[in-house]
Amino acid sequence: METNILSILEPKIQHVKSDRGEIYLVGPINLPVNLEEETFLFRWYCWLLCKEELDRLESIIEKLSSGNLAEMQQSSVLVYGDFEHAEEAYVRMHSICHTGDIFGSKRCDCGYQLHQSMKMIADKGAGALFYLANHEGRGIGLFSKAMAYLLQEQGYDTVDANLNLGFVDDSRNYGDAIRVLGMLRTKPVKLITNNPKKLTALREAGLHVTDRIPLWGDVSAYNEKYLQTKINRSGHMGSGCPEQ
Description:
Layout: H1 3-9, E1 13-18, E2 21-35, E3 38-50, H2 57-66, E4 76-80, E5 90-95, H3 98-102, H4 110-124, E6 127-132, H5 136-139, H6 142-152, H7 158-164, H8 175-184, E7 189-192, H9 196-204, E8 209-213, H10 224-232
Parallel strand pairs: 5-6, 5-7, 7-8
Antiparallel strand pairs: 1-2, 2-3, 3-4, 4-6
């Protein structure tokens, strides 16, 4: 491989140990993002989990080119401002939602939460949004989520739909994202979430979370039952939540 290619890529790839393998983090890459007709410059990172440790950049590239990574989902993180050094910074652990984030579905509030948390981070001046690609449907995957939607159309709520398909209510794991967060920032953070499980995961990993920032909104006839289920059965919390 050409020396100049290696010199461009090598400083941009970091290695993070995981209990499930080896994490390779690439970035930062400048990513201008349009939010409410204003452009904000984020810095984008993406990470890949490998089973074995690769000691040379050439080995990493060979590994990528020999596998069909287009069929594997990789997570990433958008970083805004001086995330490493800022005294205060927001963090959002956002689970991928193909229907809500991409198609703008109103069956959930995920698309709203994605864009609103990005705007909150930009307005704060420092923060990071983790986009967790293996969390679709609370960890059951897109195809299983589609089947769960069919059950929901017959009256099952989100929790019972997952349980009746043989899954637990929520199988998401935040370990790798937490390791990447620890590489990017060691100072305390404020977590944008209504989900106490996310808060617990960060704190049990030893991260200093000083506050929780609630994120409710975009309530409609299409997602009212879904939001009530989050509160009544999944324990979601926060001021500004829908009427119970």
